[in-house]
Amino acid sequence: KLLTANADVADKTYDGTTTANLSNVALVGIVDGDQGKVGTSGTTGAFSDKNAGQDKSVSGSGIALTGEEADNYAFDSDAEIGKADIDRKLLTANADVADKTYDGTTTANLSNVSLVGIVGGDEGKVNTSGTTGAFSDKNAGQSKSVSGSGIALTGEEADNYSFNTSAEIGKADIDRKVLTASADVCLLYTSDAADE
User: Fold this and answer.
1) Which of 97, 101, 102, 123 is geometrically suited to a Cys-Cys bond with 170, CB 3.0 to 4.6 A?
2) For residue 115, what are the CA distances in angstroms to 122, 148, 156, 162?
3) What is the pLDDT of residue 185?
4) How far is Cα of residue 182 from the mean position of the Cα atoms in its chain?
């Protein structure tokens, strides 16, 4: 007899695999009198695909039957055993940040943006767009923290990731603005003619 099961499935963060972790596996369809004589081993299942998403179907692909009556049953490892989420993996990045002269804004110019945390096999399938970041504040200072506030993800695997726009992406300086001045100059001439 073909059995199915229900199980609790743990949510996970995208890792490029379909592997699911199961707990509290309860077999469905055991004949009366065989309860307690058929059990399960294994705690892994498989998501329907590797991609991030909510309430994704999970099968009991890693479940096997055990017990004295197990030979009278088969387990449907393709049937849904539960549902769970695969959350997007949060990425950070490193970048070169250009120093600038104080201009009253936090805007930073980025180059050579390199993502950190991409899952093996996804290299080259997740890229960035945008070249602006944000200094921690607008004030002049040395080695100021800069976030990648203007960075977005692109590429065929981008939907499996999110980008941490508030994390530090690099450091740079905001130099003081040098001021000049102009003034109206009045030259006073006095005559010594009266003294002669």
Assistant:
1) 97
2) 11, 11, 15, 11
3) 75
4) 52
